[in-house]
Amino acid sequence: MPRRRPPPAGARTDLPPLGIVRKILLLQLGYYLTATALILFTTLVYGRPFSFDLLLNWDAVRGDTTIGWILGLVWMLNSLLGVILLLLLVSRSKLIPDFALTIHFVHLIATSLYTHTIPTNWLWWGLQFASASLMVFLGMWACRYRELQPITFGIGGSSSSSSQQQTSDPSEQDGEDFASGSGGRRNRGNEFEMGKMKGVGEQVV
């Protein structure tokens, strides 16, 4: 029987199924929690009672009402917060599109189950497309920016700099001692020669 090739290194631990499901659940939960908080704040400011229709009803995003446009802006702001969640939980640029599109696909299923109909509002579909695109592009850019950051080791740098200073200081001191020693010997030689010349002059006189 032909031998089966071993899986590449990290294939079983890179994307475990339970880890993927856990990340999807955490991302979806964070997506709805931030959206609920933003919509609740908006309704309090606008003076309208909060309802889950604003969260899961696709007909709430309308172009002929003020609250419909406000909800569109709120969902786009929620997408910006979703980029932070993707950066924290996924942190890999090549996996960002899969998780971002999965979030919006699950939202489509939840909206369809809540309203018992498939969304037919083109403004809602356009909002989902814009939100998914924003999360994909900004999420990939943020992850790649963090991946390209240089890795620095503060302890090694400080020890190397201190060792360089320790190795450079003795040489400088030796050089200074050598210069002072040579200068001292020259001064002593000059004094000796001057004293000798004075002694010879005195004898002649």
Automatic annotation (TrEMBL):
Q: Which InterPro entries match?
A: Integral_membrane_SYS1-rel (IPR019185)
Task: Give the main location.
Answer: Golgi
Keyword Transport listed: yes
> What Gene Ontology cellular-component terms does the record carry?
cytosol; Golgi membrane; trans-Golgi network
Q: Where is the composition biased (Low complexity)?
A: 158-170
Q: Where is the segment annotated Disordered?
A: 156-205
Instruction: Establish whether keyword Magnesium is in the entry.
Output: no
Location in the cell reads: Golgi apparatus membrane
The residues that cross the membrane are 29-47, 67-88, 95-116, 122-143
Keywords for the protein's UniProt record, in alphabetical order: Golgi apparatus, Membrane, Protein transport, Transmembrane, Transmembrane helix, Transport
Q: How does this protein sit in the membrane?
A: Multi-pass membrane protein
For this entry, the protein name equals Protein SYS1
**Organism of derivation:** Aspergillus glaucus CBS 516.65
